[in-house]
Structures are given as C-alpha cells and as structure tokens.
Amino acid sequence: MGMPRKKPKSPPIMSHEFVIQNHADILACIAIVVVLGLVSELTAKVSRVFVFLQHGLVKNEDGVLEPAVGKDSFPVEFERGALDIFTVIFQAMMLAVVHAVIQEYVIDKISKKLHLSKTKNSRFSESGQLLIWCLVSVGWSIHLLIKNGMLRDISMLWEDYPHKVIHWETKLYLLVQMAYWVHMYPELYFQKARKDEIPNRIQYYTLHLVFIAGAYFLHFWRIGMVIGLLHFIAEAVFHGSRLLYFAEKNEWAELGFSIWRVVFPIARVLILAIAFLTFYWGLGRAEVQGVDFATGSFNSFFVRMICLGSLFFLQLWLMWPYNQLILRRRREERELKKKAAALTTAKPKPAGKKQKKDSEESSNGVGGKGKVKKN
C-alpha cells in the first residue's frame, strides 16, 4: 500500500499567501456585511452610500428636477458627485470577486490544459480577463448608445451641453468602468504579477481610469462612451487573437491579428475624427461658453483643447508600438522569403555515394533482377 498523501499546509492567517489565496472570500464577506447594514436603521445610511447610486434626481410638482434626498420615489435620473467614490469602491470589491471566479473556474482550467510557461500563463490570464471585459463593455455601450439615440444622431454628442443629468443605467455603466480599472491595481498583488510586467500594466490601467473619470467629471460622458466603444472593439480583437496564439491555433491567430492590424488604425482615426468634430466644431459653436461649476459646464476653449490634445497624443502614443510591430513583421517576412529563395536556388549535393550504394544494391538483387534463388 502506498503512503497516504500529506495535506498541504494552509498558510498562516492574514499572511500574504493567505490573503492572496482567499482574497475573493474576504472581499465577499466584507460586501455581505455592508449589504446587511441595510437592515438596521443605524447603519443603513452608511450602507446606502456604498450599495446604491448616489445623487439622484426626482421631479417636483412643477416638473423640475431636484435632489431626491428625503423623497419616497426611486430616482431614475442622476448627477455626478463626491459620494460616487464610495460606490466605485464597493463595485471594485465586487469586480475583484468576479475576477477571481473567472480566473479559477475558466482561465486557470484552460491554461492548465495548454501547459504554458509562467510568462505565457501570465499573459494568457491577462488577455483572458481583458477579453471578457472588452466584450462586456462593447455590448453594454452599444445598448446604451442605441437607447439614448446617439448612434442615429451624432450631434447629440455636443447638443444641450452640459449633460448634467444621467440616466441610472448610463451612470451605472460609467461607475462600473471606473471600478474595473480601480480593482485592477490590487489584482497585480493578488495574481502575483511579474515585476517586469507591473509598470506597463499600471500605465495601461491608469490611462483608462484617467480618461473615463475625466469624461465623467467634465460631463463629456457621451463622447467618452463612443470613444470607449471604438477602443474596446480593437482591444477585443487583439486579446482574442492573443489567446488563440497562446493556444497554438496559429491559423486563427494569424487571421485575428490580420483583422486587428486593420481595425486598430481605423479605430484611432475615427476617435480623432469624432473628438475633433465634438470639441472643436460642435462645442465650439455652442451658446454656453466658459467654465461654470454651478451649471456643470466646462465648455471653454482651454478645456476643449486640453481634451482634444490629450486624445491626439494618446492616439499617437498607441500607434507607435503598432508601427514598430508592423515594421518588425515585415522584416521577418522579408527574411523568410530570402531564406526560402536561397533554399530553392541552392545546388544539390553530389550523389556519388548514393549512386555507388544503388549499384551495390542492384547487384545483390535489390531494385534489379537479382540472383536466381536455389532450390
């Protein structure tokens, strides 16, 4: 009989390894405590700040929107405010739990079957999580853009600015977007990211968070949703192709990267065109000009040029590694063509030894008439 297997020792409570292994359960317990706080009147005010959307608006008797504080009706329209930070924190906790579930029950099971190295496994996990998020973002943003009529009429991106009033579903989408990129910072610790990958990942997360939060705060969330849709489409194609590459589905991966090489620059051009049309032409012709914190207007020439210039330089910065990749692939293709041409034009080796061997074999009855077998 074989020796019984020893159970792996569980790490000490609240040690680094314990937190990493059980972070989803810990965060889920914290979330349950926050939700249970709604039961008691003493803690309900605190729990509501985390669980529910804040800064709701309801119509009074005159049909004018006013804050929903102390109102019995459930608000459908909202505005942004400082309390949204607590909602983002709570949503980031929930997304960390969902992240862990997807990682354990989907991505890890697939990566084990592929037998990837540590580096490839880390990149496979990253692309798997980002692909799922990009697909969710694309589907959700298309639904909201169709619902708000922004795909039919592009002038809605700048008409009636400032867009201070936000529908509850749109506000939820924007807050979840910010929460997703906030939760990605502690995931670097939970997923034990490689040190050489951390700077690039932090840069990637920060750019998403800054631009989404900026569009939300400045009431440019409509153009932010359109730009985000174009960006996430290109990102979904890239990460999907990357997963196929790690899975050694080379033909499908090459097709995916070929599509990405077309979609990526088109997305960058469309983003710049929409940004120029909105910030320079549309908002430039609006009647309300200047910064007014009371009305939530940030339609000044200075703010618009900062937004337009930031988007312009971001697209150039994103295009730089893309161009480097295209040039490197072209060099590799030229080298492969040169090697193939060299092999076809190479002189065949002298076949003297082979001919001698064939003559010996024919004399022994191999490949020729051979000797007559005696009875």
UniProtKB/TrEMBL annotation:
One of its GO terms (cellular component) is endoplasmic reticulum membrane. Residues 122-333 form the TLC domain. Keywords: Membrane, Protein transport, Translocation, Transmembrane, Transmembrane helix, Transport. InterPro entries: TLC-dom, Translocation_assoc_membrane. Coiled coil: none annotated. The keyword Heme does not apply. It is a multi-pass membrane protein. GO terms for biological process: protein insertion into ER membrane; SRP-dependent cotranslational protein targeting to membrane, translocation. Residues 338-375 are annotated as: Disordered. SMART domains: TLC (SM00724). It comes from the Eukaryota. It is found in: Membrane. The chain crosses the membrane at residues 20-39, 85-107, 128-146, 202-221, 227-247, 259-281, 301-320. Belongs to the TRAM family. PANTHER family: TRANSLOCATING CHAIN-ASSOCIATED MEMBRANE PROTEIN (PTHR12371:SF11), TRANSLOCATION ASSOCIATED MEMBRANE PROTEIN (PTHR12371). This is Translocating chain-associated membrane protein. It comes from Ciona intestinalis (Transparent sea squirt). The gene is Ci-Tram1/2.
